[in-house]
Amino acid sequence: MNIKIKKLKVFFCFLLITNTLISQVDTSDFGIWSSVGVDYSPVKKLKISVEQSLRLKEDAAVTDEYFTELGLQYEIIKDFKIGGGARFIKENDNVGKKQGYESHFRFNIDASLKYDIDRFTLSHRFSYQNKKELNLPVTELNLAKETLRFKTDLEYNIRKWPLDPGFSVELFSGLENVQQVRELNLDKIRLTFGTDYKFKGFGKFGVYYRYEENLIKYFKNENLHILGFSYSYSIN
User: What are the Cα distances from residue 142, in Å, to 29, 104, 136, 172?
Assistant: First the structure.
């Protein structure tokens, strides 16, 4: 009898330790991202776009941020484009003593190249982005967060099938000043798999699954699983 009781004690201790370890290891979150956009080409090779986005966090139960983004893109030569964008962000800070929606401004400059290999379309994009919080008191330190991003996208064209699958990998590297020396550190990795469907005269709908891993370990949620939806409409 005593042996059975001891075994039960050991078993319950094992369950308690395992549950504690799992709760410590589980640093993932689930979010939903959605966006609606419109683009217009006033002249050949030039595209102007505007997009409104909403992002949810904490198992898609809490608003993470919402923003409006204005973009400009120009095709220098066939399939090689340069562009930029400005994003006005409302970010929900619900951690710590000081909570509420913070205003941020972000701008980016990028270059992209696209080419075909048989039924595959391969594209690369290199971006520089600069983000800063607005309306902070003068006494508070407000340094801009600079990030370099590199994205590779692969899409496969399936014959007589409108939902062509696409897969992308994107790396985020932060630029930091350490003892007056600029250092480049890999901060985040993003993997995306999705597809879209174009309705004639009505626009394009997209759906995707995205996985993000934050490599900076002080983040509360180091891994993020995202279900995304998008809609875009081209005026011409």
Answer: 28, 11, 7, 21
H or E stretch covering 13:
helix 2-25
Q: Which residues contact 33 (CB under 8 A, 6 or more apart)?
A: 53, 54, 55, 56, 210, 226, 227, 228, 229
> pLDDT tens digits for 155-166?
999 998 999 999
Quick one: how far is CA 5 from the chain centroid?
52
pLDDT in tens, 89-125: 999 998 888 889 999 999 999 999 999 999 999 999 9
Nearest residue to 35 via CA among 205, 224, 236: 205
Can you tell me the distance from the alpha carbon of 231 to that of 37, in angstroms, rounded to the nearest whole number?
A: 6
Q: How far is CA 231 from the centre of its chain?
A: 16
Provide the residue ranges of all domains of the chain, joining segments of one domain with +. Answer: 31-234
Task: List the beta bridge partners of residue 176.
Answer: 183
What is the token pair recorded at 144?
Answer: 């801009």
Q: What is the CATH number of domain 31-234?
A: 2.40.160
List Cα–Cα distances, 73 to 171, 201, 232, in angstroms.
22, 22, 16
Residue 153: Cβ-neighbour burial (10 angstroms; 0-12, 13-18, 19+): middle
Report how far residue 113's alpha carbon sits from residue 110's, in angstroms, rounded to the nearest whole number: 10
